[in-house]
Specification:
The complex is a heterodimer of chains A (524) and B (289). Chain A is of the alpha+beta class. Chain A folds into three domains: 232 residues, 3-Layer(aba) Sandwich (D-Maltodextrin-Binding Protein, domain 2); 76 residues, no CATH class; 134 residues, no CATH class. Chain A is built from 18 helices and 15 strands. A five-stranded mixed beta sheet of chain A has the order 2-1-3-12-4. The N and C termini of chain A lie far apart (84 Å). Chain B folds into two domains: 38 residues, no CATH class; 222 residues, MetI-like (MetI-like fold), CATH 1.10.3720.10. In chain B, α4 crosses α7. The radius of gyration of chain B is 24 Å and the shape is globular. Chain B has 289 residues and is mainly α. The two termini of chain B are 27 Å apart. Classes of the chains: A alpha+beta (524), B mainly alpha (289). At the A-B interface, β2, α3, α10 and α11 of A face α2, α4, α6, α11 and α12 of B.
Chain lengths: 524, 289
């Protein structure tokens, strides 16, 4: 039956095919799965016993606690839980359910759980995952001030100086236990081999242009190797943080100049220093110091492993050069571009919070206290059962050196976090696979000791009043920064960037930040 | 029938061949990457033939296949049971809505289709599944939320409505009950619709990882796609948020590709074989006797 409708149906079909193809080419973001609306379930369904279902506890009543951290599911998790519960029985008479949630799903899962008021006890929180400030603002976490007083003597002993800075408006919502990662020092890594070859002195760097002689040599004499590799993640603009400002937020407009006691908030992107930085990056990119495809490169792991990048922008941390070598296969000098500093986001780098919905907050606090003071418990959680999942090689110090049992690799081990036990508690108590660990810990302790506390430490910006502007400014930042930071932008782009920022309410954000900062300063 | 000139046919064929190639090449790249050595991928990028052939990724995964095998088991169970239950319930519902002598037909239809436009969203459904029905970590949490999809009910209803009333009436005269009518008359006549809807439902259950993300946190109960999703996404999330000095376990590129192959390969093969039954099934219903 050939009639006119046939032509239209072909057109429609072609249009549909085009739409399907285009949507496929688009950003394959996380939520690509089909989500048909949930329907009415039939009456009969299997009933599972609800977890963590216990009455309010007096000290002797056995309770069950659940703890959500990032990690991969472990085969022998039940065995390890049994061992943990055995140990906890005498100490706090509680049983623990360890819940590992994959990194990729952690935020979504925790959001769903807190939004629906689901019952659970302990959870990992930080500035970069399960955001501490946002969740505290939502009322997802229990205030801990009194609980620490009563049940957290070891916490007070170890972390007292950080409890204040970790509080929001005087209330503490999570325990900042990871001192080792609090101090941050900005830097750029360079391959040791190339640096030595061209007589580069890693300690003689005062400013970014001091890297240029080395980079020049690499570009001229080492074809195929890029001196400074960048990709389109925050790596592309990390060098920005060497500018002499205290950034109030990693992305938003608003920073206080170093040494400014009046705490005046300015738009750091409109300063001459920022322009100089962008111009320098452009210059570097033109001279071949930075890879031209930075904006489209998803991650630098592969070129690094292949030896294509001679260095990347990366924070300097004691022991990080060892991890770098393990991951990427070559030695580096970590060249510092700033002094080590403790900022608010450093304080928030790893914390444990107690959910508002927890039925046993006292017991949960006891557990946090125990985990951060008892190496046996922490290492049970982090390494599994001795003899089965790990063996002690050297127990001369508190920090025992361990190895996996013969014939067992990380993949075949029934319980193996591969050093990821820092999600539970103080990493300085963890055992380690590397015999250098004891020195590394000493170096880390010295590093943190010497680090200066930023004058703004403890100030947390609450974005709620300006959240629409925050959303647009963040979007503009994400759009322009990879280009500006990797030097692939034109001169006009910077003006465009500033213009768009102004149009999206950068000033409103700065005003709000100033107001909050002044209020916070008054309470000091 | 008029035959198109050669050059027109050639252009069409070339276009279709190019399209087919464009679809196959990514699959070949994944396959090739899964059989490569990690360093080679870094050096040469993704190539159609692996530059350094190595089965190390597969050895790594298959050295302990329990997780993949369990995930397969879960996915197959969820898909099989889910499809059957869903088809059953959807056709029951569609049948009722298709009968013009059902007095409350319009009200029920409105009630059901309203949810296509407005639904409570994540929070209420999460509360329903975890608190009211208590299905957290149950395999039923992976099946029940999708068991009735209003769109499919609509499709089936439309198809059922086309079946002449006289057939149903004559069956009633002979003393058939409603269930009998549904199963012996309506369903056999609606095979094309059932097959189509069935196929969509199978794909929906097979590909889903979202329900697992929300409701399952025990490794033994992860379906295949969720496993894949985690492995693929973990890498990017961890990279974006490096915590200074803290260790995280990262599988190599070749391992991720190998897992992708293991997760999607079998269904691809299965589909190729099952395809002709679908087509046959569709043709059967097309010519109503």
């Amino acid at each position: 039956m050939r009639n006119k409708t046939n032509k239209w149906s072909w057109l429609l079909l072609a249009g549909l095919a085009l739409v399907l193809i285009v949507s496929g080419c688009g950003n394959g973001n996380n939520n690509g799965g089909t989500t048909p609306p949930p329907g009415e379930p039939p009456s009969n369904s299997t009933n599972e016993p609800a977890p963590g279902d216990s009455t309010d506890a007096s000290k002797l009543e056995p309770v069950e606690l659940s703890w959500y951290v990032m990690g991969t599911q472990q085969k022998d998790i039940e065995e390890v839980e049994a061992a943990v519960n055995d140990y906890l029985k005498d100490k706090i008479n509680a049983t623990l359910k360890i819940k590992f949630i994959e990194w990729s799903s952690f935020d979504q899962k925790l959001n769903a759980m807190t939004a629906t008021g689901e019952n659970f006890d302990l959870v990992f929180t930080a500035s970069f995952v399960n955001n501490y400030v946002t969740n505290a603002g939502k009322g997802a976490f229990m205030p801990l001030n009194d609980l620490v007083e009563q049940y957290g003597p070891h916490i007070k002993e170890k972390f007292n100086q950080y409890l204040g800075p970790a509080s929001i408006d005087g209330t503490l919502y999570a325990i900042p236990y990871n001192i080792s990662a609090m101090a941050q020092q900005r830097g750029i890594n360079v391959s040791k081999e190339l640096a030595d070859k061209y007589g580069f002195d890693p300690n003689g760097i005062k400013q970014l242009s001091d890297f240029e002689p080395l980079y020049e040599q690499i570009v001229q004499n080492e074809p195929g190797i890029i001196p400074l590799g960048m990709d389109n993640s925050q790596r592309s603009y990390q060098a920005m943080y060497t500018l002499p400002f205290q950034f109030i937020d990693n992305k938003l407009t608003g920073a206080v100049r170093n040494g400014d006691d009046t705490f005046t908030v300015v738009n750091q992107y409109a300063t001459p220093e920022f322009k100089a930085y962008v111009d320098k990056m452009r210059d570097w990119s033109k001279r071949g110091f930075i890879n031209k495809d930075a904006v489209s490169l998803k991650d630098s792991d592969t070129p690094l492993k292949a030896g294509k990048f001679a260095g990347i922008v990366d924070n300097k941390a004691p022991g990080w050069d060892v991890s770098f070598k393990t991951n990427y296969g070559f030695d580096i000098y970590q060249v510092a571009t700033t002094e080590p500093e403790i900022t608010t986001s450093g304080i928030f780098i790893s914390m444990t919070a107690i959910s508002k919905t927890s039925k046993n907050p006292e017991r949960a606090m006891m557990l946090i206290d125990l985990v951060n003071s008892d190496p046996h418990l922490l290492n049970l959680l982090s390494y599994g059962i001795e003899g089965k999942h790990y063996e002690v090689v050297d127990d001369a110090n508190d920090i025992k050196i361990v190895k996996r049992p013969d014939g067992i690799t990380a993949e075949t081990n029934g319980y193996d976090l591969s050093g990821g036990g820092w999600v539970f508690g103080d990493p300085w108590m963890l055992y380690d696979y590397s015999p250098d660990r004891v020195e590394q810990v000493a170096a880390q302790k010295a590093f943190v000791e010497n680090a200066k506390q930023s004058p703004l430490v403890g100030f947390v910006f609450n974005p709620e009043p300006v959240k629409t502007q925050v959303a647009s400014v963040t979007a503009i930042f994400d759009q322009y920064m990879p280009e500006l930071g990797s030097g692939t932008s034109t001169e006009a782009k910077l003006d465009e960037f500033l213009d768009k920022l102004n149009k999206s309410g950068a000033d409103a954000i700065i005003k709000e930040m100033q107001a909050q900062l002044d209020a916070w300063k008054a309470t000091k | 029938m008029k035959s198109y000139p050669v050059w027109q046919r050639a252009i069409i064929h070339l276009f279709l061949i190019a399209l087919a190639v464009a679809c196959i090449i990514p699959l070949l790249l994944v396959l090739s990457a899964s059989f490569s050595d990690e360093a080679a991928i870094g050096k040469y990028g993704y190539t159609l033939l692996p530059k350094a052939f190595s089965t190390i990724a597969y050895q790594y995964i298959l050295s302990d296949p329990t997780q993949i095998v369990t995930a397969y088991g879960i996915t197959i169970f969820v898909t099989a049971v889910g499809t059957i239950v869903s088809l059953l319930l959807s056709s029951c519902m569609a049948y009722v809505l298709s009968r013009s002598d059902f007095a409350y037909r319009n009200k029920f239809s409105f009630f059901i289709y309203f949810t296509m436009l407005f639904n409570g969203g994540l929070v209420p459904s999460y509360m329903l599944v975890t608190q009211v029905l208590d299905l957290k970590n149950s395999v039923w949490a992976l099946i029940l939320p999708y068991v009735i999809v209003p769109w499919f009910v609509l499709l089936l209803r439309t198809y059922f409505a086309d079946i002449p009333e006289s057939l149903i009436e004559s069956a009633k005269l002979e003393g058939a009950g409603e269930f009998r009518i549904l199963f012996t008359i309506i369903l056999p006549l609606s095979l094309p619709a059932i097959a189509t809807v069935g196929l969509f439902i199978i794909l929906m259950y097979w590909n889903d990882w979202y329900l697992a993300l929300l409701y399952v946190d025990e490794g033994k109960k992860f379906p295949l796609q969720y496993l894949l999703y985690n492995i693929m996404q973990n890498l990017s999330v961890i990279k974006a948020n490096p915590v200074p000095g803290m260790a995280v376990r990262l599988p190599g590129e070749n391992t991720r590709m190998a897992i992708a192959v293991l997760a999607t390969g079998p269904i691809l093969f299965a589909f190729v074989f099952v395809q002709r039954y679908f087509i046959a099934g569709l043709k059967v219903g097309a010519i109503k006797g």
